[in-house]
Amino acid sequence: MAVREIRADLAVIGGGLGGVAATLAALRQGLRVVISEEGDRLGGQLTAQAVPPDEHPWIEQCGCTASYRHLRQDIREYYRRFYPLTETARQKTALNPGNGCVSQLCHEPLVSSAVIDAYLRPYISGQRLTVLLSHKPIAAAVDHDSLQAVTLRNQADETITITARHFIDASELGDLLPLCGAEHVIGAESQQETGEPHAAAQANPLNQQSHSWCFIIDYQPDADNTIEKPPSYDFWRSFIPDLTPVWGGPLLSWQATHPITLEPVVRSFNPLHPQPERGPMDLWTFRRIADRHNFIPGAYASDIVLVNWPQIDYILGPLVGVSPEEKSKNLQGARELSLSLFYWMQTEAPREDGGQGWPGLRLRPDITGTADGLAAAPYIRESRRIKGCFTVLEQHLSPDCQPSQATVAQQFADSVGLGAYRIDLHPSTSGCNYIDVSALPFQIPLGALIPQRLTNLLAGGKNLSVTHITNGCYRLHPVEWNIGESAGLLAAFCQRTRHSCHEVYAKPQLTAEFQGLLSECGVELRWPQVGPL
After folding, report:
1. Do the Cβ atoms of 170 and 156 come closer than 8 Å?
2. CA 217-222-224 angle, 5° bins
3. What is the CA radius of gyration of the chain?
């Protein structure tokens, strides 16, 4: 069978938020781009994984790129244009369709899909962009530290080879890195390696943050929507996480560990009478993506809620550094855990009125765009990470490691963007409970996007040069978008100036020139005085 070939200025492998941002940035600079995605849609954690944006409290004013701010505005405008909002909701500048407490923009994933697809459509029609969905990278060709080509395979077992001047790995798990021989790290480094206060005593590649298979539900009080009992339900029903510090009870319960204090906490759940004043302690409002009170009476019979809760964090095995069979087993395990939690909620969950179960709870496949109501892809928190020209450590971010009056993290002269979030690590696949500690608003250093050796490969998402610890705050939506956008602009800058990525990093004059392009494109490089999270 003949292998189809595509030539481009830039190949973006992986269609998550970073991949989309990289693609748009490069296209707007005049490059011809190919973007591939293993799944059936672009947008990653915002769309396929169905997770509303996790963001810092200043997101409406500062701390993200102009294009990310436009994305947020266009998602809101989509609701104003097409959804039957109440006039009160329509007039809110910072419209939050779900009024979920975890985000200022809780919304349905297919809305963000529609906005992202609209951004890309003109470039597809103009034949400057090729989108390859359901294509997985399977091989790479490297010559003298230069990545020459990447071969992809689709679900019909057809292959296609992309040649390009620059490549960006924006896949969810850093899948291109081992194929092209890029030096990279998996899992947890040791404290001896990094000196980080919260690093593990011993390095362990299989110590990775749990992944979760999210799902979307609503509630019909007079219906019985009980699903078939999942095959592994009895296992999960009696499962108590073996974590240090201890979890404190069964995974399928309203009890969990508080991420910061690590004390057992009991959360509330009542689809009839949610308790928004309890914030993240109320699971119905925690990640609600449609508050029926935002819409005209009768438009929504129920709120709509995304389930991305501690009870579906899959800790029995990682997705990276294991055999394909083990990876498949762990993905299926996460799906069955999520369905088991849902079945427990329908049949056995204790209610405030003394009853058991909410049989009227219903999965919403029409909103996930899948057959079963589970998200189209698992929510990935941790990827392979390049060994870069510079690695971000906990010491760069922690208030305890900065001057006592510091309101921002250590400053990087080669900043290519901003982010802010607590260092938030979910329970791990090697028995560690939450690590959730304060971090100062931080910068994204250029050196963390550039591999030590390969000359034309860039990190475009969670696979930048951070540690297992600092990944905990560099993995969120606006940061991933910023990483990808800056990588796309760097590829365009290097092709225009005929300098290598390593030259731009090593020569302050070139770094400053590139930062000028970033600023022109709306990438913020310096934080105002804000404070720790």
Report:
1. no
2. 65
3. 22
Distance between CA 449 and CA 451 in Å, rounded? 7
Residue 170: name the closest of 368, 386, 365 by CA.
Answer: 386
- Of 17, 153, 7, the C-alpha closest to 483 is 17
CB-count exposure of residue 381 (10 Å: 0-12, 13-18, 19+): buried
Taking the C-alpha atoms of residue 428 and residue 199, their distance in angstroms, rounded to an integer, is: 13
Start-to-end CA distance of the chain, whole Å, equals: 55
Read off the pLDDT of residues 350-383 as tens digits, 9 standing for 90 and up: 999 999 999 999 999 999 999 999 999 999 999 9
- Please give the model's pTM, rounded to 2 decimal places: 0.97
Backbone angles phi, psi at 357, to 5 degrees: 80, 155
Calculate ∠ Cα 89-93-98, nearest 5°. 50
- Residue 442's DSSP bridge partners are 419
- Which residue, 445, 308, 324, is CA-closest to 388? 445
Condensed to tens digits (0 to 9), the pLDDT of residues 459-478 reads 999 999 999 999 999 999 99
Coil vs helix vs strand at 108? coil
Q: What is the pLDDT of residue 252?
A: 98
- Residue 450 tokens, joined: 């550039």
The answer to whether the beta carbons of residues 50 and 33 sit under 8 Å apart is no
